[in-house]
Design goal:
single chain, alpha/beta, Rossmann fold, four-stranded antiparallel sheet, 21% helix
C-alpha cells in the first residue's frame, strides 16, 4: 500500500469515488505572563524573513540582546520574555548567523524558507458536507442528538456510555490550536470560550473580536476539530466527546494554510496564560515535516516550540497532538521525507526521526495520538512507532477498508463545519481531538489533577489493544506496516484505545 501524499494538516484529501471525502490534525498589563512587545520598526515585507531568537536560560531577552537584534537589522515583532523567545522580522540574509554569535543567545533561525508573505499555498482539501437528505435520514436513539447515529466513533471510545454519567465540566476548557473556529455554529456556540480565543498568525496575539474565525476561503479544519471535542448535546446536529466542557479557538494558520513557528509559540503561550486545561494540535509546524537538530535554523524552531509547549504544561495544560498521516514508522532508523520545505521547493531527504523531530508531535510531554478506523484497526494512513505513539483513538479510514456498523454509513469522522454545517473528514487530525476530549473528561472528574496526573490516568485507563499481525489493510497480500511491542504497549496503539467511560467513572 502506498502512503498518502503528505498533507500540511493532519487530515487527508481522498477521492470521493473511494467513498471517502476530502479531509484533513496575554492579558494586557500582566507582564509576568504577557507577550511583552518592544517598539517595532517598519520593514519591507517583500524581502523580509521571520525568525525566532532563543535567549539562553537565566539571561532573559535582555536589553543587550534586543540592541544586538536591532544592530543586525532585526525588527522585534514580540518577545515572550517568560520563555526567552523573541519573534523578529529582518531583511538581512545574514541575520540569524549574526545573532547566533551574540552573548546570551542560545539559537536563532528562520521560521520559513519563503519571504513574508509566503509565496506558496498548501492544498487543504475539502470535507464531505452532509446533504439535507442525509441529515433527514440519520437515525439516533432516544435522547441523542439527531446525527449521533452517524458517529460510530463515540461508542468506539465508550463516549456514549460516558455521557450517561457526565458530559464534562464547564469549568474545563480545551483550546483548538488550528485554522480557526467558527464559534457561530449552533453546535459550538453554547460551549465557546471567547476569552480564551485569539488570532496568533503573526506570532503576536490579535484579540480583535472574531479574529479567531476562519475566513470563507480558509480551511474548515479547526471548526471540525472543535465540534469533535465539544459539540453541545442540545438537540441539534451531533455530539462531541465532552459536550459539557468549553472550547476555544486559537488561530495559528495563515491564509496560505501554513502553521509557522512564531504562530505556534504564540498559541501555546496564549493557552498557558488563559487557564486552558487541554490543547489540541492537529498539525505539524511548517515548513519542515521533521526539524533536524544539526541544522541551526531547524534547531532553533524545535527549541522555541519546546519552550512554549513546556510552559503551557507548567501552567496546567495537557498538550495533545496528532501523529501524522504518512504511515511512517516514527521509531525507525530513517525516513525519507519528500515534503520539506513545503513553502518553497520540497525535495527528498533522509532523516533520523530520533534526531529530526515532528513538532509539536514528538516534543517531550506531548500526548501523541494514532488513528483507528471503524473496525478498531490502525487507520491505513496513520503514523506509528513503539515509544512514540502514546494512545489511539478514532480518526476514520476509507469505508472500503473499515466499514462501520449501521446506522453509521461512512468510515470517516463526522464534525462541525463553518456556516452551520456538518461533514466528514479523516486523519490523525480527527483522532487527536477524541483524546483531547477524553482528557477534558478526566480533568472534569479530577479538577485538581496536574497535567502529569491527567496523562497518567489517560494511559492507565486506555483499553489495551494488541498488534494487528499481519497488517494488510487493503487486502492486496502485502504487509502495509509492522507493529512492534506487546498488547499493553505497542507502536500502533500505544497504551491502547482512549476510554471516555473510565474517564468519568474512575
Amino acid at each position: 500500500m502506498t502512503a498518502p501524499h503528505p498533507r500540511h494538516r493532519r487530515a487527508l484529501a481522498i477521492p470521493a469515488g473511494m467513498a471517502m471525502a476530502a479531509s484533513l490534525a496575554f492579558l494586557p498589563g500582566a507582564p509576568a505572563s504577557a507577550a511583552e512587545t518592544a517598539p517595532t520598526l517598519s520593514a519591507d515585507s517583500s524581502s523580509s524573513m521571520s525568525y525566532v531568537v532563543n535567549v539562553r536560560a537565566g539571561h532573559g531577552p535582555s536589553a543587550h540582546v534586543k540592541r544586538e537584534i536591532a544592530k543586525a537589522g532585526g525588527t522585534i515583532v514580540t518577545s515572550y520574555d517568560r520563555i526567552g523567545v523573541v519573534v523578529v522580522h529582518s531583511a538581512n540574509p545574514d541575520f540569524a548567523k549574526t545573532v547566533r554569535k551574540v552573548r546570551g543567545v542560545q539559537s536563532a533561525g528562520a521560521t520559513r524558507t519563503a519571504p513574508l508573505p509566503s509565496a506558496a499555498t498548501t492544498d487543504t482539501g475539502a470535507p464531505k458536507v452532509l446533504s439535507g437528505q442525509e441529515i433527514a435520514a440519520a437515525e439516533a436513539a432516544e435522547g441523542q442528538d439527531p446525527l449521533q447515529g452517524l458517529q460510530w466513533d463515540l461508542p468506539a471510545i465508550k463516549a456514549d456510555k460516558a455521557h450517561e454519567k457526565s458530559l464534562g465540566s464547564e469549568k474545563v476548557t480545551v483550546a483548538v490550536i488550528d485554522t480557526g473556529v467558527d464559534d457561530t455554529h449552533p453546535d459550538i456556540a453554547p460551549n465557546f470560550d471567547r476569552d480564551a480565543s485569539v488570532n496568533c498568525v503573526s506570532g503576536k496575539p490579535d484579540t480583535t473580536d472574531g479574529a479567531w474565525r476562519p475566513s470563507a476561503a480558509e480551511s474548515p479544519h479547526g471548526t471540525h476539530v472543535a465540534g469533535e471535542i465539544a459539540a453541545a448535546r442540545n438537540g441539534v446536529g451531533m455530539t462531541g466527546v465532552a459536550p459539557g466542557v468549553k472550547v476555544s479557538g486559537i488561530k495559528v494558520s495563515n491564509p496560505d494554510g501554513f502553521f509557522y513557528t512564531e504562530a505556534v509559540v504564540c498559541g501555546f503561550m496564549w493557552a498557558a496564560e488563559h487557564d486552558v486545561d487541554v490543547t489540541n494540535n492537529s498539525y505539524y509546524t511548517d515548513p519542515w515535516y521533521f526539524n533536524c537538530k544539526n541544522d541551526p535554523d531547524q534547531k532553533a524552531l524545535v527549541e522555541a516550540v519546546t519552550r512554549a509547549s513546556r510552559y503551557a504544561e507548567k501552567k496546567g495544560a495537557v498538550n495533545v497532538a496528532a501523529a501524522g498521516n504518512e504511515n511512517y514508522d516514527l521509531s525507525s532508523d530513517e525516513i525519507t521525507d519528500p515534503s520539506s520545505p513545503n513553502d518553497t521547493a520540497p525535495g527528498d531527504r533522509v532523516v533520523d526521526p530520533s534526531e529530526c523531530l515532528d513538532i509539536p508531535t514528538q516534543l517531550p510531554g506531548v500526548v501523541t495520538v494514532a488513528s483507528t478506523g471503524a473496525k478498531g484497526l490502525k487507520s491505513s494512513f496513520s503514523n506509528h512507532g513503539l515509544g512514540v505513539v502514546d494512545i489511539a483513538a478514532p480518526g476514520g479510514d476509507s469505508t472500503a477498508y473499515q466499514k462501520p456498523e449501521p446506522p453509521a454509513t461512512s468510515g470517516l469522522i463526522l464534525g462541525t463545519l463553518p456556516g452551520g454545517k456538518w461533514g466528514y473528514m479523516a486523519g490523525t487530525s480527527m483522532a487527536s481531538p477524541h483524546v483531547a476530549g477524553v482528557a477534558a473528561l478526566i480533568k472534569s472528574t479530577h479538577p485538581h489533577a496536574s497535567p502529569a496526573m491527567v496523562k497518567a490516568l489517560l494511559y492507565a485507563q486506555a483499553d489495551a489493544t494488541a498488534c494487528t499481525k499481519p497488517y494488510d489493510i487493503d487486502g492486496d497480500g502485502k504487509v502495509d506496516a509492522v507493529c512492534e511491542g506487546s498488547k499493553n504497549r505497542n507502536g500502533f496503539y500505544g497504551w491502547g484505545m482512549a476510554d471516555a467511560l473510565d474517564a468519568v467513572t474512575r
